[in-house]
Please model this.
Amino acid sequence: MDLSLFRQKDFFPSFVTDKLAAMIIYYKEKHSLIAQANKTDWPHLEAGVVLLLHYKSNQENPEYVFQLIKRSEKVKQAGDISCPGGILHPAIDKSVSFFLKAGIIPVLRKQILNYARHKDKKTISLIRLFLTTALREAWEEIGLIPFNVLFLGALPYYSLTSFARTIYPLVCLTPNPFQYRLNSEVDKILEIPLSFFFQSSNYASLEIETSMVNSASGQNNKLPCLVIPDKTGNIDILWGATFNIITNFLRSISDDSLPLPSSSRTMKKVLSNSYISGNR
Model:
């Protein structure tokens, strides 16, 4: 792939929208299955997250970056890198999504309708609903103002069996810089250039060690991950759901030209019971 695409500030957003509009997403079908499951004793949560893109012009090599959060020690999945967003609150989010439909943010309403012009009404309604959830949570977590958001498209849902949760990712652009205002759930913001994902040396295999209840003692799993150095000489590791959401997005816009993760480089991560429960 020609990585200069990520430096084309004006062309890239429309390019992404066209690519995402061609994707098939099964929000309607999954939402219906979850609604049926929630009538039983096995509740399943739904979450909306926003994959934020921003054009960084004030750096040596201007290009688009992902704006991601690192979860604080006060929440579940502490230390993980995630997209801003959170759990659907049906009553609140359905009410607020009505205002999106009515055009309280005209640009967002127009972009949703333009992107989803070939999709059915139920799918459009669910995109609007989970975008509402994601933006509400992003405002709480990092101070993102919904009026500073352009909607580019939806990505396929991603289910987490360990958490009985399904994530609906929406890709958005923040056209203007904003002052991050982090709440207690967020440790820091990471701004990762899109081109970083196209360098094979940045990938590794992540060895997960866990002694969680209901898991075999010393159980190990190996998963692909991205290793991100910071300015202090430390590293952050992107793995799991967010890794898969982002790489799925990048494969979709690059005609599947991402490098394969390196199997020769191994990182380790230990998960305790508090990783799932959030109790420490």
Remarks:
- The first helix runs from residue 11 to 21.
- The longest strand covers residues 45-56.
- DSSP finds seven helices and twelve strands in the chain.
